[in-house]
Amino acid sequence: MLTLMNDLPKNVLGVSAEGTVTGHDYETILIPAVDKLLASNSKIRLLYHLSPTFSKFDLQAMLDDAKVGMKHLSAWERVAMVSDHQMINGFTKFFSHLFPCEVRIFTNAELQKAKQWIVEP
Question: What domain count does the chain have?
Fold first, then answer.
């Protein structure tokens, strides 16, 4: 399940994942939020938090994640991944080279640090 964070500036999309994240979550929460932010900002920042209760992405969510990332490739200004999942952090680090922006990985204990970094000028 995905939920949006409400305590971030207007050019920052914060999303938190719990349990199983599905394609439906992407199609009804994340993708519309990205599209809405891009309607008023040419560049956006993303804070993606995999909470301690996160368990997995279903196949459609993984495909949707790749699609939204690549569709808006030039729109990302900064991305923060907050996760204690070593495999996902490894994938994030590997694929971060495809993004034309800075991508940083934080642990769940560093969530506040990630929030500070994502809003810095």
Answer: 1
pTM exceeds 0.85, yes or no: yes
* Contact yes or no for 72/41 (Cβ under 8 A): no
Q: Which domain holds residue 51?
A: 2-119
pLDDT one digit per residue (tens) for the chain, 121 residues: 999 999 899 999 999 999 999 999 999 999 999 999 999 999 999 999 999 999 999 999 999 999 998 899 899 999 999 999 999 999 999 989 888 899 999 999 999 999 999 999 9
**Among 16, 60, 18, 12, residue whose Cα is nearest residue 36:** 12
Tokens of 97: 């080279």
Residue identified by tokens 């995905």 is 2
**Does residue 80 contact residue 44 with C-beta atoms inside 8 Å?**
no
**Which CATH number goes with the domain that contains 55?**
3.30.750.24
Largest interatomic CA distance in the chain: 35
- Rounded Cα gap, residues 110 and 104, in angstroms: 11
